[in-house]
């Protein structure tokens, strides 16, 4: 017996001859004969299910197999992904990076920000600022996968330093954000009133090469009421300021600076002290 799925079956094992006859359009009889051996049951071969035309699996199930165009600053790239489950390949857009930020004073700054100032005070220890990179959609890139960091060696003395951000993988180019290490502020040891003036003494901090004394009749140190005296040389530890109004209250503070490789790095100002002239 011939089943509808074209499988031959028999009552027992053996060989049989099967003859098929048919007539063509002209009425001629056509015959075809074949010998069939009936043995063990034959399972029909299943037609494999074709792979889906579109991969529906999540991004976490896909791996990067090639990068056709690396992304750069605000310029998107392209890369090819392959699904680990179905094997389907797809093309993905890689958003260009937008911000290379440095962490300082409890906040991340990018050099393009108007208030960018990454200034670390001298501590005697090597300073390695935290860096993070964001793409133009706000996603944080992965250090080690998308970029690597090279810090300056022995960045602990006051001065100007840069960190090299080298992009790799799906990203290209390099970027060098900078930061400062400022000397520690001086310590005021004495403030005495004089006739029409005052004398200020201080203790020299490490790495200072000069000082700026600021005095004002306003506690807010407004531009119109404030004057600055610059003291060159690290060995000087006192300065007398005269020709001021008599019997007048003045607000005074001081900071130091360090000149190195064409840059001038300033410390923070000390806490404000007051004196009334004689």
Topology, element by element:
Layout: E1 14-23, E2 29-38, E3 62-69, E4 77-83, E5 89-94, E6 97-104, E7 107-110, E8 119-121, E9 131-135, E10 147-150, E11 159-162, E12 164-167, E13 174-175, E14 178-182, E15 187-194, E16 197-203, E17 210-216, E18 226-232, E19 238-241, E20 249-260, E21 263-266, E22 273-276
Folded structure, characterized:
The protein is built from no helices and 22 strands. The chain is an all-beta fold and 278 residues long. The strands form 7 sheets. Strands 17, 18, 20, 21 and 22 form a 5-stranded antiparallel beta sheet that branches.
Key attributes of the depicted protein:
278 residues, mainly beta, five-stranded antiparallel beta sheet, 22 strands, 48% strand, rod-shaped
Record field, number of beta strands: 22
The computed structural class is: mainly beta
Distance between the termini: 130 Å
Average pLDDT, all residues: 89
Radius of gyration: 41 Å
Overall outline: rod-shaped
Number of helices: 0
* Uncertain regions spanning at least 5 consecutive residues: none
Largest sheet: 5 strands, antiparallel
Strand coverage percent: over 45%
Q: Considering DSSP H and I runs of 4 or more, what fraction of the residues is helical?
A: under 10%
Q: Write down the secondary-structure element order.
A: EEEEEEEEEEEEEEEEEEEEEE
């Amino acid at each position: 017996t011939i089943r509808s799925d074209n499988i031959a079956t028999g009552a027992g094992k053996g060989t049989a001859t099967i003859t098929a006859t048919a007539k063509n359009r002209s009425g001629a009889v056509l015959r075809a004969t074949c010998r069939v051996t009936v043995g063990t049951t034959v399972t029909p071969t299943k037609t494999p299910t074709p792979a889906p035309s579109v991969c529906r699996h999540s991004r976490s199930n896909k791996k990067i197999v090639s990068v056709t165009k690396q992304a750069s600053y605000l310029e998107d790239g392209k890369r090819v992904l392959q699904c680990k489950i179905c094997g389907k390949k797809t093309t993905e857009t890689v958003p260009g990076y937008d911000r290379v930020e440095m962490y300082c004073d409890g906040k991340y700054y990018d050099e393009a920000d108007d208030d960018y100032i990454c200034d670390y005070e001298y501590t005697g220890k090597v300073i390695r600022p935290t860096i993070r990179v964001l793409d133009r959609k706000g996603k944080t890139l992965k250090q080690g996968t998308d970029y690597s960091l090279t810090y300056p060696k022995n960045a602990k003395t006051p001065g100007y330093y840069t960190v090299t951000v080298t992009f790799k993988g799906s990203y290209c180019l390099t970027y060098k954000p900078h930061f400062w290490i400022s000397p520690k502020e001086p310590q005021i040891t004495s403030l005495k009133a004089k006739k029409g003036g005052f004398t200020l003494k201080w203790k020299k901090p490490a790495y200072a090469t000069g000082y700026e004394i600021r005095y004002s009749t306003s506690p807010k140190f407004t531009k119109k009421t404030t004057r600055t005296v610059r003291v060159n040389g690290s060995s000087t530890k006192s300065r007398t300021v005269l020709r001021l109004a008599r019997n007048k209250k003045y607000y005074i503070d001081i900071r130091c600076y360090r000149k190195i490789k064409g840059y001038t790095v300033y410390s923070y100002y000390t806490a404000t002290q007051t004196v009334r002239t004689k």
